[in-house]
């Protein structure tokens, strides 16, 4: 049996009745988180531009989250994907080195809404797509893995999700996956940290590629289906080793801070120093950050855009030292950047450390040392808050969700949370998407 046939078999056989409850719970939390960040993301410039572009596809059967009316499934997929990643607040996975939800959920939701699928159907598709896409990302050969961003493997995840909803099997499913891989974007990941564009690892386009691949395969369009037979690209044994017995979706992280995940251990370490000590920011002489190699690209001391700030270690540290939360409003720059923030940012020095490089990407560890005129403060964080080893509490997850839905009525927020928490009981997903359309 070929590797594609093994994938085909797993996707076809996965059913709500044979999925572990821990995987179901993780899928619900990622879906809730996706809804939250998509709504919160509507306030960003990237999301507003994406919405304008999405309207070129015209009206249709799908919901653009946070917007009135119904739109083309392609326009909705695009707009929701861009909004979901625009705050840099969505879920992620350490093994994949990227963000499954913002690629997978928009394509999944658009197709499921059109097809009037149930909550159980959604859960099956979420879990199948997470398991395949995360494993694909993780089993890439080393050089290929670190030179390509979420969009490269995210299109495959979106195609799996859409294909599962459309009930594609055998040749159609294999072709959908082949089309998605063939048309996936090959964005060098490091470029996002150097130039920090709105493009965000090509997540929006990846979701669009995935849903298009499923529809093309359904119509009879064909592709090469032997990608996973090439050992020079993938460690195929790694891909299938625990498929069906271990569910990697349970190791998804949720973000407590609206910034790149690589800043989070640094934020946690800084927050602990601030909490445990009496610290006057005016006395700070230097802030020394030690972490893995790639963090040296995140050293912008004067961020001028939402995206630059999300990828700026100095800016995130300065927020914490001044007692501010690392949350979306601090990255929209409605009131500009204060002189205090800039002064602290300029005192940050980032030093790559082999200690942290050797455990990356499975761990995104870091240490922070704050030097004042009188003493030094030090803290090291191995696993940042939100990881499966150091998870956010249910209250923290709910507080984040409610903060992102601040423009929605309390009643509507409660209804949305309840429906997703009990998703397996929802007979038609349109019952949920109706709530996502109108703000009030």
Please state the CA-atom Rg, rounded to the nearest Å: 21 Å
Q: What CATH architecture label of the largest domain applies?
A: Orthogonal Bundle
Major β-sheet, in short?
4 strands, mixed
Please indicate the percent range of residues in DSSP E strands (runs of 2 or more): 5-15%
Q: Give the class from helix and strand content and strand pairing.
A: alpha+beta
Please tell me about this protein's structure:
By secondary structure, this protein is α+β, with helices and mostly antiparallel strands. The chain has 2 domains: 3-256 and 402-437, 2-methylcitrate dehydratase PrpD; 261-381, 2-methylcitrate dehydratase PrpD (60s Ribosomal Protein L30, Chain: A), CATH 3.30.1330. It has 20 helices and 5 strands. Helix 3 (45-54) packs antiparallel against helix 4 and helix 8 (150-166) packs parallel to helix 11 (203-219). The radius of gyration is 21 Å and the shape is globular. The mean pLDDT is 93.
């Amino acid at each position: 049996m070929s590797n594609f046939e093994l994938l085909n078999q797993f996707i076809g056989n996965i059913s709500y009745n044979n999925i572990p409850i821990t995987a179901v719970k993780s899928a619900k939390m990622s879906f809730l988180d996706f809804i939250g960040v998509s709504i919160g993301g509507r306030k960003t410039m990237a999301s507003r531009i994406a919405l304008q572009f999405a309207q070129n596809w015209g009206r249709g059967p799908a919901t653009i989250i946070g917007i009135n009316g119904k739109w083309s499934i392609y326009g909705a997929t695009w707009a929701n994907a861009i909004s979901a990643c625009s705050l840099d607040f969505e879920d992620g996975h350490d093994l994949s080195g990227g963000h499954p939800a913002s690629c997978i959920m928009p394509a999944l939701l658009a197709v499921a809404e059109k097809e009037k699928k149930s909550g159980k159907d959604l859960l099956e598709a979420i879990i199948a797509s997470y398991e395949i896409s995360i494993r694909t990302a993780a089993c890439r050969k080393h050089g290929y893995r670190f030179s390509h961003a979420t969009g490269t493997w995210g299109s495959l995840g979106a195609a799996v999700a859409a294909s599962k909803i459309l009930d594609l099997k055998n040749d159609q499913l294999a072709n959908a996956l082949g089309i998605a891989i063939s048309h996936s974007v090959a964005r060098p990941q490091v470029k996002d940290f150097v130039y920090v564009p709105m493009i965000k690892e090509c997540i929006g386009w990846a979701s669009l590629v995935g849903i298009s691949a499923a529809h093309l395969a359904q119509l009879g369009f064909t592709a090469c289906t032997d990608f996973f037979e090439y050992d020079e690209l993938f460690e195929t044994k790694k891909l299938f080793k625990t498929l069906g017995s271990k569910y990697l979706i349970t190791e998804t992280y949720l973000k407590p801070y609206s910034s790149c995940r690589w800043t989070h251990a640094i934020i946690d370490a800084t927050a602990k120093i601030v909490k445990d000590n009496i610290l006057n920011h005016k006395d700070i002489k230097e802030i020394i950050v030690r972490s893995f190699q790639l963090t040296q690209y995140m050293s912008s001391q004067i961020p001028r855009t939402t995206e630059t700030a999300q990828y700026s270690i100095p800016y995130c540290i300065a927020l914490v030292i001044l007692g501010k939360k690392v949350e979306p409003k601090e990255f929209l720059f409605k009131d500009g950047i204060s002189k205090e923030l800039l002064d602290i940012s300029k005192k940050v020095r980032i030093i790559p450390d082999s200690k942290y490089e050797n455990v990356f990407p499975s761990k995104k560890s870091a240490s922070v040392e704050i030097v004042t005129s009188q003493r030094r403060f030090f803290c090291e964080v191995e696993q940042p808050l939100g990881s499966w080893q150091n998870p956010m509490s249910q209250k923290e997850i709910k507080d984040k969700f409610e903060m992102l839905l601040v423009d929605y009525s309390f009643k509507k927020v409660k209804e949305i949370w309840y429906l997703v928490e009990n998703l397996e009981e929802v007979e038609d997903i349109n019952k949920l998407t109706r709530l996502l359309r109108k703000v009030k």
